[in-house]
């Protein structure tokens, strides 16, 4: 009997795991273990990029596992899991907010629910059910009846870790619950406005998200920490998979650069670069403080500076001596506004200037070539052997986190995820042309653009 799909998945998973072993050995990485250890595994680092072969093999293996579940799981179980999935996030919240994960980290071999009840004043009966739910998702494991130990992944939830910052951002559940109402709301259903989102319905407000959060400093602080954590997650890939040395003859203008974290990371890794962080007036102070705190003190004074400039204002820095960079900015805006932002940069750029757009490209675009007007796509070399699982399956299955993030940003800001063709349309409308697309070891890519010359238009 021909079990084509099952056989294909088995072959693809075996290929991916074989490649993962070879790549890990080649990179001198220690063996993986799901159990919590004294030291973090190098593959869990958010400060260093994953070796290319390991990155490709890991995401292919994860895609196979997801597709196997899709193939084998009973549809009713899938429906029931979706029905009760609302408890996944609160269970992790309980794990963090009530001190459970931090307490368990002190007992790597395991701790009883009776001890947790005594020390944390929590009902052991209720706690057991919550912890068993967390064990299904691999955060912890039950070593004996009522005794639980952390798994390796739980380290990211400890005090000071970036995963904790993402979980602690408030209001997820309320906004998610408003999604069905939002999609059929008589005034909001076809609106592209950031004033007409699930966020407004969830919070009974007419204010857009960023106006609303100004009135709640605690909310703003926790949201900002989550955004910064996500930015830090993608930064190693951005730093490692684009030829930043080619920008050393120009000054990089980090447009809407927040507190300057990416600019600081670039300067610390590539000391020859000079960068300017542009933000709204009220953000310049926090950016300057962050630069002072995190920039390598051995760098030349003025390597990274901050200044006030709005995306929709005329760009004051003009000519070939500037490279302009937009990270995670344009997805916040509908097409007309995105075009307007890029037009400001096109007017300021010289013929040799680069405009770097760092965004997620939705949908599928080939690994080896993209039909660009001027140059082929730039990609990472992959050591992964030929696989029967498609690139589209890998994108859909192994990168669920960015898709969930895209849905959340849609619900709070009416953000717009775009395919390469949609990005190309916006970019060309602004008088720019894509000269290269750089796939990175993360879920975003860098679209390198320049101004269209008069004889090309």
From TrEMBL:
Keyword Transferase in annotation: yes
One GO MF term: O-methyltransferase activity
Keyword Ribosomal protein: no
Organism (species): Suillus plorans
GO biological process: methylation
PROSITE patterns per the UniProt record, alphabetical: SAM_OMT_II
Protein name: S-adenosyl-L-methionine-dependent methyltransferase
Residues in O-methyltransferase C-terminal domain copies: 208-380
UniProt keyword list: Methyltransferase, S-adenosyl-L-methionine, Transferase
InterPro entries assigned: COMT-like, COMT_C, SAM-dependent_MTases_sf, WH-like_DNA-bd_sf, WH_DNA-bd_sf
Pfam families assigned to the protein according to its UniProt record, in alphabetical order: Methyltransf_2
